[in-house]
Structures are given as structure tokens and as C-alpha cells.
Design goal:
About 45% of the residues lie in helices and about 15% in strands. It is of the alpha+beta class. It folds into two domains: about 70-205; about 220-320, 3-layer Sandwich (Rieske Iron-sulfur Protein), CATH 2.102.10. It has a six-stranded antiparallel sheet, with no helix packed on it. A hairpin with a 2-residue loop joins strand 5 (about 270-275) and strand 6. The longest helix has 30 residues, at about 140-170.
């Protein structure tokens, strides 16, 4: 029988000596993958690893720096909130530059306003870069590729505005035409980067709450017989078509959504420490008692279920809006 496809056809064999003479041995699949891997992928792997080391992604919980940069404490991703600062500031700088270019002598104040707006935008862009790279370090596949291009255009815009700011400072009245033109190019770059950011969120679903569309039932639903549930073990059940994880500790039962709100990871395959479950994909940690996020990258809490025992069966019902 063929080991590859399971067919009943004859399978020819080749001696090890003949095979060795015809092909060069590959020591491992990992080496072969690294040979064929495009430069962008190898660069992304290295950059993600470096970022994860700096922000402590591989450290033991609670990983406060990473959670802070993800926005876990706020209950909302921090990066999109900060991006409004550079985009808004640089848009305002462009308006000031246009006003100044119309009549440099009459609107000298506009040149000074543009200088301040550019400086504020640079400070905001640095914050957006740090939080954005933190979020990007947990991506993979096509969203990682889009995110890399998003970062490249953002860095380009930042570099252009730094040059523009320097040129504005070295002129007497901050009225450099070249600085204004460079600013316009930088604005085009950051706007395209914003478009790519929208592509990540609205097309790829990056950093959206993956439990937002889960429906819940208004009635309790039986999921498991109580006698078959062991203590301190995660059980994956289904209630109203929604995957739920169930935990028993003594006489108490706890249940939350089994889909990680960060990227959709299966929490039932994660690790359990006390009443805290850790997602196997990116390490987000949730409290089984109330669904709170304890460690990022997740920012949205897990939907919680009320649990009761009736007629020898465990029943669950979604708590809160759905």
C-alpha cells in the first residue's frame, strides 16, 4: 500500500545508496523551510522575535508592559486611539502650510502653527509605533504581511516629518517651502498607512473582539451530566450553538466563552492555573469566575455564563447582552 495516499498500487523502493547519490541530504524540514522562505517572511520573523523579547511576551504572567501597550487595562486596543494624534496633527499642519503658501507675508502665523502641529504629530507617531508594533508581534499570515507594509509607510511618514521639522527649525520664520512639500508627501504616506490599518481591522479582523457576534440563549441549556465532570479540568460544551468552556471547583461551576476574544483561539486547549485559563495561541489570560482579562494581548472580557445543576445535569445560560 502506498504510504502517501493509501492506494493499493505498487510502491517502488530505492536503495539508500542510490537515493543519496542522486539528491543532497536535508538535515531537517526547518532548514528546507528557511531556504525557501521569502526575505519579507524571514525579516518579519526576526522583527517579531525582537519585539517579543523587548516587551516581555515570553515572560511569566502578568506581563504588565505588554498588557499596557496592548490596551488591556483600558478594555480597548491602545494603538488605534493613539493613531488619531499624528494623523490629526499632520492634517492640521497641511492646512496651515496651504494657508501660508497662499500668502507667506500675510499668514506668517500659519507657518508657526504648522511647525507646532508637525512636532505634536511626531510625538504621537512614536507612541503609535510602539503600541502598533506590540499588536503586530502577535499576527501571522496575510495580516502580518499587511501589517508590515502598514508599518513601513508609517515609518516613512515619520522620517519625512522629522526632516520637515528640522527644516522648519533652521529657517528664520519656519517658512520653508521644501519643508511644506516634504510634509505633504509624509501626509500621503501616513494616509495610505491608515488605509492598510483599516484593511487589517475590517478585512482581516485584527484586534477585533472575536466573541462580539456570539448569540446567547435566554433559557438554560443542559450541557453535561454532573457526575461526569471532574474538578479542575476544562470541558468544551455547546450552548445555543456557541462553544463554552466549563470548569468545576468543588461545588462551584464556572463557564465563559471558549473562543478567545483576541484572535479566536480555543481556550479549552489552553492551560489552567487555579481559576485562570491561558489561551494557547498568544497567552491572553482570563478569570473563569467573571471573564475578566488579566493579561494581554486580549482587551475584551470573555462572555460569562450562569451555571446551575438540575436533574443531574449542568445547565448554562449567557449572562448580559448578546
Amino acid at each position: 500500500m502506498c504510504d502517501t495516499c493509501g492506494c493499493q498500487g505498487n510502491v517502488s523502493t530505492v536503495s539508500s545508496e542510490s537515493s543519496a547519490s542522486q539528491t543532497s541530504p536535508i538535515s531537517s524540514v526547518a532548514e528546507l523551510a528557511s531556504i525557501r522562505q521569502p526575505f519579507a517572511e524571514r525579516f518579519s520573523d526576526g522583527l517579531q522575535h525582537a519585539i517579543q523579547v523587548v516587551i516581555g511576551s515570553q515572560r511569566k504572567p502578568p506581563r504588565r508592559i505588554k498588557s499596557l501597550l496592548n490596551g488591556t487595562v483600558l478594555g480597548h486596543p491602545l494603538h488605534p486611539a493613539i493613531t488619531d494624534v499624528p494623523i490629526g496633527s499632520w492634517m492640521l499642519a497641511a492646512i496651515f502650510d496651504i494657508i501660508w503658501l497662499i500668502s507667506p507675508l500675510s499668514y506668517a502665523w500659519a507657518a508657526r502653527g504648522a511647525l507646532i502641529a508637525v512636532a505634536v504629530g511626531i510625538v504621537g507617531a512614536l507612541g503609535a509605533a510602539v503600541t502598533g508594533l506590540t499588536d503586530w508581534s502577535d499576527t501571522y499570515g496575510s495580516e502580518r504581511s499587511i501589517g508590515l507594509n502598514h508599518a513601513i509607510f508609517n515609518v516613512t511618514a515619520l522620517a519625512l516629518y522629522v526632516i520637515s521639522l528640522v527644516l522648519r527649525f533652521i529657517t528664520a520664520a519656519g517658512d520653508s517651502v521644501i519643508a511644506a512639500i516634504i510634509g505633504f508627501v509624509g501626509l500621503a504616506a501616513v494616509l495610505y498607512a491608515a488605509y492598510l490599518g483599516g484593511e487589517m481591522v475590517f478585512t482581516k479582523g485584527t484586534s477585533v473582539n472575536h466573541t462580539a457576534w456570539e448569540a446567547g440563549s435566554d433559557d438554560y441549556q443542559a450541557v453535561l451530566p454532573v457526575e461526569g465532570i471532574e474538578e479542575n479540568k476544562l470541558y468544551r460544551v455547546t450552548a445555543a450553538g456557541v462553544p463554552v468552556i466549563l470548569l468545576r471547583q468543588g461545588l462551584q461551576f464556572f463557564a465563559i466563552s471558549a473562543t478567545c476574544s483576541h484572535a479566536g483561539g480555543p481556550l479549552d486547549e489552553g492551560t489552567l492555573q487555579g481559576d485562570i485559563v491561558e489561551c494557547p495561541w498568544h497567552g491572553s489570560r482570563f478569570c473563569m469566575r467573571d471573564g475578566r482579562v488579566l493579561t494581554g494581548p486580549a482587551t475584551a472580557k470573555q462572555p460569562r455564563y450562569d451555571v446551575r445543576v438540575r436533574n443531574g445535569h449542568v445547565e448554562v445560560k449567557r449572562i448580559g447582552e448578546h
